[in-house]
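Re-run with default settings, no changes from the original entry. Doing this only to confirm the output is reproducible before filing.
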Amino acid sequence: MSEENIEEMSPSKRKMLAKLGKLPAGDQAETSTESEMAETTEDIGDIEEMSPSRRKMLAKLGKLPSDLPSKSRPSKTAAPARKTPTAAKSTATGEVHPLVSGKIKRSVKPKLEFKVERRGWLSLAFGWLAFLLGGIPAFATMILRFLFPNVLFEPPQSFKAGYPDDYTIGAIDETYKEKYGVWIGRTDKYIYALSTVCTHLGCTPNWLSGESKFKCPCHGSGFRKTGVNFEGPAPRPLERHWIGLADDGQILVDKNIKFQREKGQWESENSYLPWT
């Protein structure tokens, strides 16, 4: 078999002849190499479609030709790096841009300027003046009322009622009714001081000289000139007050000491002033 015919054979046919031993030894080795290269080259199409990991494994095993173009997965295009904002000056005004050191500064709110007209200042001044003039006295009054609370000033419980001879026998004197709440009566044997408080519900009876009795306007209770009850809802006689003579000879009445007839106190000393 001539060399020209052998060279014109396809690699597969030459490989087959080499296996049968019909090719020279040199041609057989060359044919084996060429056939392997051919087979490898024929499979390039399949190899190119392989994944990079499989191709890497075949390369390690030595089953890929050295001159085979390497193919790898297309690498992902790296995203362009973000530009870090930097401070920038305006060429026109020379002002610094609000982007400093990569951080955006918050815009500063403009300061509010309050402009008060002259009339507004006057109104404000008068308002404060009125507040001070009205508030300070009121506050001072509250403090004073707290420090000095209201006290009910009552008339003195003891008083002088003139001389015994100033009173008429059988008459009721109303001189001290309004101020002290006391009637002073006189009999032919003694002088006594009666309370002006009705024993029913605390009203003030009226002295009816024409009828010679005390009559309560609230519920109609009636009392004789001595103070004994005889009509109406009053449950007991009027009360008497302590009576005596002062050092100067005047009648002295003490409202702090009371005498009740139902308790037998009208016979007590100082429940009446003996005088004839």
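The mean pLDDT is 75. Residues 158-274 form a domain with the Rieske Iron-sulfur Protein fold (CATH 2.102.10.10).
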